[in-house]
Amino acid sequence: AQTVTQSQPEMSVQEAETVTLSCTYDTSESDYYLFWYKQPPSRQMILVIRQEAYKQQNATENRFSVNFQKAAKSFSLKISDSQLGDAAMYFCAYRSAPLNYGGATNKLIFGTGTLLAVQP
Amino acid sequence: DGGITQSPKYLFRKEGQNVTLSCEQNLNHDAMYWYRQDPGQGLRLIYYSQIVNDFQKGDIAEGYSVSREKKESFPLTVTSAQKNPTAFYLCASSRRAEKPAYEQYFGPGTRLTVT
């Protein structure tokens, strides 16, 4: 079974600085997807970024980027130029890639989250 | 505006009572999901449904039941058999499970407190 581990329960960063959140996962599959979700105090889950395992290029979305190391099964999130609005719980999630139509559940497996504080 | 609605935001029940949490989406998504969130444990899948009139158990289905009579609606019933029902419940939806991986859109959640 696949597992996702986030070893940093809490992190803190100064406004405008850069912070990296860690995520490791365990799987025997070769094709899968990885996601970072943000959960602000409102508790609304918001997709931050996604990575497809068969793509070697690291995904980037504005100030958010990932460092995907497939061999090491590592998927870290880098937030550049941190803003007060980035303060939230961040979850790493894994999803298997379907082998065929309807062959997978689109089930997400989540890590336990990292609570990010942004200091002004 | 397209999205997912969950009601109510806060729900209080006495122990031994069944309670139903509502989830409605107008995104025309085929798949819908229920997650439970507890402090320090991330999100865990309770039930999911890929099409109308079909649903499967997730990792922690015991004490819960669902129905999927309409594409837009996926209500979750927390029964008296659920030993620790107090939690935050999140509903999500997505397009069908096929490549590429479509993101799951989440509702605002319902905080259930059972005393």
Describe this protein's structure.
- The complex is a heterodimer of chains A (120) and B (115).
- Chain A has no helices and twelve strands.
- With 120 residues, chain A is mainly beta.
- In chain A, the strands form three sheets. In chain A, strands 2, 5, 6, 10, 11 and 12 form a six-stranded mixed sheet that branches. Chain A has a four-stranded antiparallel sheet with strand order 3-9-8-7, with no helix packed on it.
- The radius of gyration of chain A is 14 Å and the shape is globular.
- With 115 residues, chain B is mainly beta.
- Chain B has strands spanning 4-7, 10-13, 19-25, 31-37, 43-51, 54-57, 64-66, 76-78, 87-94, 105-106, 110-114.
- Chain B is globular.
- Chain B starts with a strand and ends with a strand.
- The mean pLDDT of chain B is 91.
- The interface between A and B is medium-sized, with 28 and 28 residues.
Which terms summarize this structure?
heterodimer, A: 120 residues, mainly beta, six-stranded mixed sheet, four-stranded antiparallel sheet, globular, B: 115 residues, seven-stranded mixed sheet, 11 strands, 0% helix
Quick structural gist:
The complex is a heterodimer of chains A (120) and B (115). Chain A has 120 residues and is mainly β.
List the topology elements.
The complex is a heterodimer of chains A (120) and B (115).
Chain A: E1 3-5, E2 10-14, E3 19-21, E4 24-26, E5 32-39, E6 46-52, E7 60-61, E8 64-69, E9 74-79, E10 88-96, E11 109-110, E12 114-119
Parallel strand pairs in A: 2-12
Antiparallel strand pairs in A: 1-4, 3-9, 5-6, 5-10, 7-8, 8-9, 10-11, 10-12
Chain B: E1 4-7, E2 10-13, E3 19-25, E4 31-37, E5 43-51, E6 54-57, E7 64-66, E8 76-78, E9 87-94, E10 105-106, E11 110-114
